[in-house]
């Protein structure tokens, strides 16, 4: 039986925030893939599957919604983390968990820890 996915994409343009999330996830045994932009995220997504993705909503190079849809289509649970109004994420993205900034790194890590990898349809391979 294959090992369950333990990798989590953290797409966040604030270095300090991403470091805090990375530390909280590491304390719970997760491996992180850190990216500060959409282009960096796409470049770093390779290798083993993702368990989940924590996506900052608005990044220097655009909105993370397209990436969210790509990952969700592959069965990867998505959380959108945003300082924007709660209505900023369109209604056609009901599959996302939404967190409003400021949110603690521990709350985000707890959400990831609550995901049952065996309940996922398939391990989500990264988009290419």
TrEMBL record:
SUPFAM superfamilies (alphabetical): CheY-like (SSF52172)
Residues modified as 4-aspartylphosphate: 56
InterPro entries: CheY-like_superfamily, Sig_transdc_resp-reg_receiver
Keyword terms of this UniProt record: Phosphoprotein
CDD domains assigned to the protein according to its UniProt record, in alphabetical order: REC
Domain spans labelled Response regulatory: 7-116
Name of protein: Response regulator
Organism for this UniProt entry: Novosphingobium tardum
């Amino acid at each position: 039986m294959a090992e369950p996915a333990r990798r989590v994409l953290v797409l966040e343009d604030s270095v300090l925030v991403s470091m805090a999330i990375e530390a909280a996830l590491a304390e719970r045994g997760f491996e992180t893939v850190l990216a500060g932009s959409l282009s960096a995220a796409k470049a770093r997504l390779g290798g083993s599957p993702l368990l989940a993705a924590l996506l900052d909503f608005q990044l220097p190079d655009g909105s993370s919604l397209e990436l969210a849809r790509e990952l969700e289509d592959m069965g990867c649970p998505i959380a959108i983390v945003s300082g924007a109004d709660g209505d900023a994420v369109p209604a056609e993205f009901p599959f996302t968990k939404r967190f409003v900034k400021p949110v603690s790194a521990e709350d985000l890590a707890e959400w990831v820890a609550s995901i049952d990898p065996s309940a996922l349809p398939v391990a989500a391979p990264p988009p290419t």
